[in-house]
Amino acid sequence: MKKLILLLIITALCSSAMSQTEKLINPSDLKQQTVVTEPVTLRKGYLRAGTVLSYFALDKYFTNEARKEYYTLSSWQSDFSYQFVLRYGITDRLEVDLAIPFTKKKTELHYSVKWPGLDADASMSGNYKSHGLADCDLTVKYQIIPEKEKGLSLTFWQWVTIPTGEKNFTGVKSFTEFNLPLGNGSFTTGSWLNLRKIRYPYSFDIYASYAIKFKGSKEMSQEDTKETKFKDGNYLWFGGSFNIHLNEWIVLANDLSYKYNQKGVIKYSVEQAVDPAWIFCYSPGLVFQVRRFRISEVVQVPLMGKNNSADPLYIMKVLYTF
Amino acid sequence: MKRKVLISLIILSLAVQVPINGQRDSKPRDKYTLLTMPYNQRPLTLYRGHFQVNAGYKFAVRARTFDKNGDLIVLKDEGTASVFHYYFLQMKYGITNFLELSVETNYLKHGVRSLTTEYYSLTDNITVNSLTTKKGMGDLLLLGTARLPITYKWFDFALKGGMFVPTAKYEPLKPTHTVTSVTAVNTFTVNYHYNNTNGYGVPVYILGAGAKFSFSKLSLETDFSFRSPVKEGENIRWNETLTTAKTFTYSNKSYKYLLDNTVEFNASLHFQATGWFNIELNSNYSKSKGGWTENLGNKYRNPEEYLFSLEPACEIQISPALKIYELAGFPLLGKNRDAPFYIFITLSYNLFPFLR
Q1: Which domain holds residue B308?
Q2: How far is it, in rounded angstroms, from Cα B169 to Cα B110?
Q3: Are B113 and A109 within 8 A, CB to CB?
Q4: Is the pLDDT higher at A74 or at B20?
Q5: Domain total for chain B?
Q6: What is the H or E stretch that residue B280 is in?
């Protein structure tokens, strides 16, 4: 009998010791989870900060007939943006994000004018630049259905774009010498629903979003002396993504998205409609999780569209979890 | 007798020694060891039975060019900067540990704008835009590489030879010029749009050599190649006429050409930071000359051109089967050549299909 009791005690001690080991979670390990394995929102008290660099050069566009065409004028336009990002987990299900973007815009337009009858010619050029704060984003994310192992999660996002960037042309000295606007000049708010499933080494997302653009006013061209009221079209955005672990710390990310902009309006003395636009994009990328650093390289490739830019957008993110 | 015994013993001891050493050298290496072999321990060709597929994308911003005097021209300042997209696919197979065969091709998309010109007279106001696009598949390159039949330790040497087979379309397509913004009979915009393709049009052979030295975590690799066309080629040149109905009619004329001979030299210094991460600094020099182009019955020599670039790069071993290469290119010197800044990303998939 004594022997049996002793055996039971030993067995009980062993089992408790094992369960203790399995439940041991190191908080620093959680901060090193990858884009596949971590929950949609940050855990309570976690802070993620970093920068997002993006670049695109204007080369092609989708016409009103949804054909891809090159710009034909001898001009060059590029946008380089560096955005400071802060994400903070208020609870395990509630997160708040702040994005502060700085943009460097550059447009150069050159052409030659000839008067064959007078045997005269001239070169004309415009070199328009601007550099500074663009429109900031504030986002709140809440996990309606929290992430559980092998389960689904449903997350709701609400964001506001605040028109902090300069909306008007500044430093206008002539029709070839001025600074470009950096902001849009109106508030935007949108809601986003994200359904996600993790099945290691994969994760799948489906999302849908609708954004409302508010009325605003700004100078529509550098020649304007007073602001004109406008309202950009609201937009619908939906898509899905598929991420796969290539090894324990590198993830191949894939995203397909469709965005539809409704008709907008510019309230000149006679109202002018802004045509609806849509775009269908594929965004492949690699996400490296090096301890608490997360480095992403993504190319957003427009596949089809209408009244939209057809140029790839190159994005690089460097984030650190504190 | 003693001497004979002694000699026999020496021979016998050597005979024992040789298989012992031989045994050590011919230790079987499993495919995972071979697939994850760091750069500083890899020979210049693939291992026997090793199959590799490389798929790459290059994005280049053609914002600068070197003129005939080697002076740098900033194309952004002329409104004629452009971007190009280059996709690359290569397959390699190791026939033996010393012989490798490869096949590769590419796809290119590139549009170059010329300076917009407005013509004014008392009666006319005509704006002229011009765009030349180059788009399409490139020729198929078949290449064989043979290296020294020794186990790679610190030195390797290889010879390569092959040919660009003219599989790609090389004749330019009919232009697609348009007339837009017609506000009066003599007030309109002409948009010239020339549609070029990506093929050489003739077979081009390639010969080259490469060498590699490794010292601990550092390696130095150099290679040299020479490309030359097998024969003269014939192509067409499109001419256009603007009709009174503001449409274009086209005709074409054939002309002969000879492609340039091109030499290319690469030298790269590599550092194997860890087993899965290798960083390198490559220098690339290429020079072309010797070709000509016929126009109106006369042959005009192609201008001699060269370009020297520095290319920092890295290689990351993601898994036994996958590697990624990332490279950025910075042209420093040149003559008669565009000097684009570029980023080249290549994913490499590796396997031994016939080895368990």
Answers
A1: 28-351
A2: 16
A3: no
A4: A74
A5: 1
A6: strand B277-289
Euclidean distance between CA atoms B169 and B198, whole angstroms: 7
User: Is B3 part of a structural domain of the chain?
Assistant: no
Length of chain A equals: 322
CATH of the domain at B181: 2.40.160.40
pLDDT in tens, A41-75: 888 999 999 999 999 888 899 999 999 999 888 88
Q: Is B270 helix (H, G, I), strand (E, B) or coil?
A: strand
Instruction: Answer whether B133 touches A (CB < 8 Å).
Output: yes
Question: How many angstroms separate the first and last alpha carbons of chain B?
Answer: 54
When scoring B65, B193, B324 by the number of chain A Cβ atoms within 10 A, the one with the most, hence best to mutate, is B324
* Whole-angstrom distance, CA of residue A217 vs CA of residue B153: 71
User: How much is the pLDDT for A108?
Assistant: 86
Residues of B in contact with A74 (CB under 8 A): 78-80, 113-116, 129
Q: Domain spans of chain A?
A: 2-321
Identify all chain A residues contacting B130, using CB atoms and an 8 Å cutoff: 72
Say if A217 is an interface residue toward chain B (CB within 8 Å).
Answer: no
- Percent of chain B predicted with pLDDT > 90: 76
Q: What CATH number labels A2-321?
A: 2.40.160.40
Q: Is the pLDDT of residue A28 over 80?
A: no
Q: Does B19 or B39 have the greater pLDDT score?
A: B39
ipTM here: 0.79
Residues of chain A numbered 91-120 and touching chain B (CB < 8 Å): 106, 108-117
A286 in contact with chain B, both atoms CB, cutoff 8 A: yes
Is the Cα torsion angle A70, B331, A111, B247 positive or negative in sign?
A: negative
Lowest mean per-residue pLDDT among A16-30, A55-69, B59-73, B298-312: A16-30
Q: In whole numbers, what is the pLDDT of chain B averaged over residues?
A: 89
